[in-house]
Amino acid sequence: MLTVEERPKPVVRVQPDGRVFRGQTVTLTCDIQDTDVTNWSYSWNKDDSEIHVSQSQEYRISSVSESHTGNYSCTGRETGGSRYSHTSDKVTLTVSGSSEAQALIIGVIAALSVAFLLIFFLALLWCCKHNKDTIWIF
């Protein structure tokens, strides 16, 4: 008896699935459904080059940078067997330089600096106006 089965096609999921910023942790998951294989070895590719092989279906990047931007895919191979999956469709990971929160913090610091300088110069002018006889030497 000969049994022919279609090779399963994995699906790659990305967490977080929205915008990704430098320094965040990103987890790629290789999900292989509709198969009786329970032990897979997962091969991860970035831009069509193999970058990682493991028994875990997750590939975690603990602190992403712009260099991690690219197209990721995975393939499963049966551990200790001869079966393997198709290669998943590619998922694009784009890493941005800084988050909106970081931009907001920089904006607040800049605004506070300008406000401090304005108050300092107003206080200096007030002192000069009320102390006309005082000589200021800087």
From TrEMBL:
This is Ig-like domain-containing protein. GO terms for biological process: cell surface receptor signaling pathway; immune response. Residues 8-92 form the Ig-like domain. Gene3D superfamilies: Immunoglobulins. It comes from Cyprinus carpio carpio. SMART domains: IG, IGc2. SUPFAM superfamilies: Immunoglobulin. The chain crosses the membrane at residues 103-128. Pfam families: Ig_2 (PF13895). GO terms for molecular function: transmembrane signaling receptor activity. InterPro entries: Ig-like_dom, Ig-like_dom_sf, Ig-like_fold, Ig_Fc_receptor, Ig_sub, Ig_sub2. GO terms for cellular component: external side of plasma membrane. The keyword Nucleotide-binding does not apply. Keywords: Disulfide bond, Membrane, Signal, Transmembrane, Transmembrane helix.
